[in-house]
Amino acid sequence: MAGEYQRIYQQFQSDPVKFWMHQSQRIDWHTPPTEAYHQDSQGLYHWFADAKLNTSYLALDSHVNQGYGERAALIYDSPVTATQQTYSYRELRDEVAHFAGVMRELGVGKGDRVVIYMPMIPQAVIAMLACARLGAIHSVVFGGFAAHELAVRIDDATPKLVLGASCGIEVERVIAYKPLIDEALAKAHHKVQHCIIYQRPQCPAELSPMRDVDWHQAMQTATAVDAVPVAGDHPLYILYTSGTTGTPKGVVREHGGHALAMHYSMEVVYAMKPAEVFWAASDIGWVVGHSYIVYAPLIYGCTTVLYEGKPVRTPDASAFWRVVEEHHVNALFSAPTAFRAIKKEDPNGAGFKRHNTQSLQRLFLAGERLDPPTYEWLTETTQLPVLDHWWQTETGWAIACNPIGIEPLPIKAGSASVPTPGFDVHILDVDGTPCAAGESGAVAIKLPLPPGCLPTIWQNNERFKAGYLSTYPGYYLCGDGGYIDEQGYVFIMGRIDDVINVAGHRLSTGEMEEIVAAHPAVAECAVFGISDTLKGQLPMAMVVLKDSYSGTWADIRAELISSVRTQIGAIACLKEVLCVERLPKTRSGKILRKNLRQLVDGEALQIPSTIDDASIFTQIAQQLRSA
Ligand code: COA
Ligand code: AMP
């Protein structure tokens, strides 16, 4: 591949320090960095540690100070409440500064953690930016998670304050959040001094007089506070993501590297210009929401759209195109599953044709592999560039993309295109030997990771090192398998660990397995991901019951489904549960989950020679046929 991308990628590869120090000039630092990164006593990398900045200042005040205060910063579009509201940069800055004042009154300061459990309302964005303003560290928990998951995160982050809303709205269903918050706080060992609750008219919550503070009331008497400059390596947020066990991992993001990565990616990955409208149709509870609903568009001076709705059913499959038309969206970013849902209901793209989508220049897809049929349908329907890009919560921005801000490269369906400048991507075999072009292996990134990626797991350097850095010394292990072709295009083929992707939501089968195995009637079980045409993957459990269990299969099945839903949340979507007599294992006792998945998905079985008894697959196959 020749051309501008290659030139810039080589510039990065030959001298990453020089490359990123040059890029750092993009940022309106309080004190600019004198060095790119340093390694701490544990050998972990931190970018721009000797700089000073504040992300809330960059996202708001900096634009107001440059004369763009009246530009639209945030458009809130909520079909579920029939509301639309626009905040200018000045209005958003003032709200954020006042809410930071509310939190400061409650004793929140630099380094304190604040857990946010809110739906897709402007107050969630205000809360995040207000934490950043104080140098406090926010941890947003996705509203689809159950009280147990919230409690686990509260115990790990040990926040001073919890911010919540009285309810979320799922299409027509009002979900009371406050009882979930109360339950989580009662369950958590860590005790929180205060909760601030934003009351929504759809379901006002009862507040506990000693602990809870009403958002509206507190704002009436609040005084605005200025952004507090913090060191470049000061944590901005912790975002928990699923690992291979029931204990989620707190991905840490630091102010300096993150701000630069967000700015850089808006230009290189998304080819945006300040004042254009960027819409990431995701949720602030996920990394896409953090990076591309909140931080990147605002740091870059764009208008961001906060959409409290679904791709379908709010009210129909033309919802996305309606939003594009009404808010003049220039670039739309969502997950393939959202477009599969739209395609299912509107295969001929009538909704797209009905709306004036002239403003829209390109579409970005991530969160799971963009399957070629969805890519083709979307390209045909919209006649626009449809760009897959691959990243993870840990990196916070695209590891591989079509770098259209540098130069558009030819699209290859099924590939996320090429490594983004900053990411030195390699495919390694089990021994750590580089794979040849076209050969599959584990995807790894040469250290140091670029600015914006996680320096560590919150309060757990050892877990970070063991999970990501120890397999291939000098490399970060992504957890994905894939290959790079002769032209340098990256093909990500799926996870090589116990993580699955259900409707763009990252979930741990290991965690579900722990919950299922904990049921007193279960002798052993395996939970793994199977293919689903709409959601990409769905979890499936195969369960061996204890001989002593005397109840019915229907009862236990319902109990297992309900305990996963109660402990993780509705998004876990465990509905497929099969009772089997035995599970296939190797002679050393390892359950062959990969083969079970192949069996259910109708793929050829690649059974290892170490299998104990291969006839189990025949039994299970028969059961699947009759189930
Ligand atoms: N709060 C509470 N519950 C939530 C929730 C939230 N924020 N988000 C989802 N849920 C619930 C849903 O109501 C549903 O509950 P149910 O089983 O009682 O019906 C369950 O969790 C599963 O939700 P979901 O996986 O979203 O399935 P769905 O059938 O409601 O919708 C899609 C299917 C494809 C339309 C939807 O998954 C979607 O929009 N996906 C795109 C996801 C996305 O953008 N991911 C971002 C990554 S970039
Ligand atoms: P999350 O941390 O929730 O963003 O999920 C990250 C995981 O989603 C990655 O490790 C991949 O397995 C998968 N993923 C995200 N984007 C893509 C993509 N464009 N192509 C293939 N897989 C993807």
Plain-language structure description:
The chain contains 19 helices and 31 strands. The protein has 627 residues and is α/β, with parallel strands linked by helices. It has two domains: 4-309 and 389-478, Rossmann fold; 499-626, GMP Synthetase, Chain A, domain 3, CATH 3.30.300. Helix 6 (147-157) packs across helix 7 (178-187). It is globular, with a radius of gyration of 24 Å. The N and C termini lie far apart (51 Å). Adenosine monophosphate binds at residues 241, 287, 366-370, 388-393, 416, 479-480, 492, 495, 501, 506.
Portion in beta strands: 15-25%
Assign the CATH architecture of the largest domain.
3-Layer(aba) Sandwich
* Strands in their spatial order, largest beta sheet: 5-4-17-16-18-19-20
In the predicted model, the low-confidence regions spanning at least 5 consecutive residues are none
**Broad structural category:** alpha/beta
Share of helical residues: 25-40%
Task: From the 3D structure, determine the CATH topology of the largest domain.
Answer: Rossmann fold
Report the CATH C-level class of the largest domain. Answer: Alpha Beta
| Largest sheet report | 7 strands, mixed
How many domains, as an integer? 2
| Span of the ends, CA to CA | 51 Å
Quote the average pLDDT: 96
Number of helices: 19
Bound molecules: coenzyme A, adenosine monophosphate
EC number: 6.2.1.17
Pfam family, one: ACAS_N
GO molecular function, one term: propionate-CoA ligase activity
Family: Belongs to the ATP-dependent AMP-binding enzyme family.
